Amino acid sequence: MQNIEILGLVAAALTTSAFVPQVYKAWKHKSTKDISLTMYLVFLMGLILWFIYGVYQESLSIMLANGITGVLAFIVIILKLKHR
Amino acid sequence: MQNIEILGLVAAALTTSAFVPQVYKAWKHKSTKDISLTMYLVFLMGLILWFIYGVYQESLSIMLANGITGVLAFIVIILKLKHR
Q1: Mean pLDDT, chain A, as a whole number?
Q2: Which of these, A30, A31, A39, B39, could form a disulfide with B22 (CB 3.0-4.6 Å)?
Q3: In angstroms, what separates the C-alpha of B81 from chain A's closest C-alpha?
Q4: Architecture of domain A3-82
Q5: Which residues contact residue A32 at a Cβ distance below 8 angstroms, ignoring those fewer than 6 apart?
Q6: pLDDT level of residue B68 (50, 70, 90 thresholds)
Q7: CA angle at A70 for the pair A27 and A2, rounded to the nearest 5°
Q8: Quick check: B24 and B78 in contact, CB under 8 A?
Q9: What are the Cα distances from residue A47, in Å, to A70, B33, B58, B82?
Q10: What are the boundaries of each domain within chain B?
Q11: Which residues of B touch A (CB under 8 A)?
């Protein structure tokens, strides 16, 4: 595998896993007042488009990264609606 | 321009602009307690790697999207540290 692809995979792993601590914090403290619902809704729409982009480009890494981030963003939205 | 590239640009515009409402909310309410600092630090590292990836791939859209998102994420970090 080329170095540049490794760089892309590490970048994807970071920008995807970054949402885990936010999900954990919102779930643990049941407090989401400061989190912007608009951000996560717009972000989720973008992730869905990136996922479709990945399908057309037949790029597993784009599908995986945006698919997982999409699930995490969706969970934050659920927690936000639950613990306004 | 191919439809797939337009899809990518719209996806990039959404996942980039999504952070503007979060910056605005944090700046306006001066309250960031529920925002995960760990998320934004890890996310910023990922964005920096994506930016470097874009430079090597000579992809202006990857550089632009991740560069702007990186600036927005950096502002959220500053607001988070300022208004713990």
Answers
A1: 93
A2: A39
A3: 14
A4: Up-down Bundle (1.20)
A5: A26, A76, A79, A80, A83, A84, B34
A6: very high
A7: 120
A8: no
A9: 6, 26, 23, 30
A10: 3-82
A11: 4, 7-8, 10-22, 24-26, 29, 31-36, 38-40, 42-43, 45-47, 49-50, 52-53, 56-57
Q: What is the pLDDT of residues B39-50, one digit of tens each?
A: 999 999 999 999
Chain A residues within an 8 Å CB radius of B39 = 18-22, 25
Q: Over the stretch B11-62, which tens digit does the pLDDT of each residue have?
A: 999 999 999 999 999 999 999 999 999 999 999 999 999 999 999 988 888 8
Work out the minimum CA distance from A73 to partner chain B, whole angstroms: 11
Between B18, B31, B46, which is nearest A42 by CB?
Answer: B18
Tokens describing residue A43: 């972000």
CA distance to A30, A45, A76, B37, per residue, from A82 (Å): 8, 20, 10, 22
Cβ–Cβ of A50/B17 closer than 8 Å? no
Size of interface A-B (CB pairs under 8 A): 116
